[in-house]
Amino acid sequence: MREIKFRAWIKNENEEKMVYGKDATSSAHFTDSFKYRKNEVVLMQYTGYKDRNEREVYEGDIYAMEEYRHEEKTVTYWTVVWDEKEYGFSLVANIEKSYRGEKYREDVYLPLRLIDGDRMKYAGNIYENPELMEG
Predict the structure, then answer these.
(1) What residues form DSSP beta bridges with 93?
(2) Spatial CA neighbour of 80 closest among 88, 92, 70
(3) According to a count of CB atoms within 10 Å of the terminal CB, is the N or C end of the chain lower?
(4) Same domain for 128 and 67
(5) Cα 39 from Cα 75, distance rounded (Å)
(6) Over the stretch 45-101, which tens digit does the pLDDT of each residue have?
(7) Confidence class of residue 32 from pLDDT cuts 50, 70 and 90?
(8) Which residue has the higher pLDDT, 134 or 47?
């Protein structure tokens, strides 16, 4: 059975930080006894999965995949998301494609298990490393 746990991104006028474990869930109670308001905390669930380096994988994590296309190195950043169609966690990236000479972008989903391979490496998360998702 998968362990249910969370981490929380906390952002307000005084601080920005990621908290794990009991600190994450207690921050999300949003009562007067805690110092954070509801709109200052974003919860992310543990997927129950660990990558090849035994790092716990959470929603919002970003993995980089290096590929060579036409002898040129490219890096694609994949984000861990809840996939409604698969009823589970998946990786998603917005990939440039072309059809009859016209270029367009499309979200492509991959199974989460692909982070076990040699081609994907942990790169950060969507809150602490938003620059990875630009472009």
Answers:
(1) 108
(2) 92
(3) N
(4) yes
(5) 33
(6) 999 999 989 999 999 999 999 888 788 888 899 999 999 888 899 999 998 888 998
(7) very low
(8) 47
Separation between Cα atoms, residue 123 and residue 64, nearest integer Å: 6
Pairing of strands 41-50, 6-11: antiparallel
Report if residue 1 sits inside a domain. Answer: no
Q: Which of the 8 DSSP states describes residue 1? A: -
The domain total for the chain is 2
Beta bridge pairs of residue 24? none
Write out the residue range of the structural domain in which residue 117 sits.
61-133
Interatomic CA distance for residues 4 and 14, integer angstroms:
29
Structure tokens at 17: 């930080």
pLDDT-derived band at 135 (thresholds 50, 70, 90) equals low
pTM for this structure?
A: 0.82
Does residue 65 share a domain with residue 40?
no
User: Position 47: which residue type?
Assistant: T
Q: How far apart are CA 92 and CA 90, in angstroms?
A: 7
Containing 48, the helix (H) or strand (E) segment is strand 41-50
HSE, CB side, 13 Å, CA atoms: give it for residue 96: 8
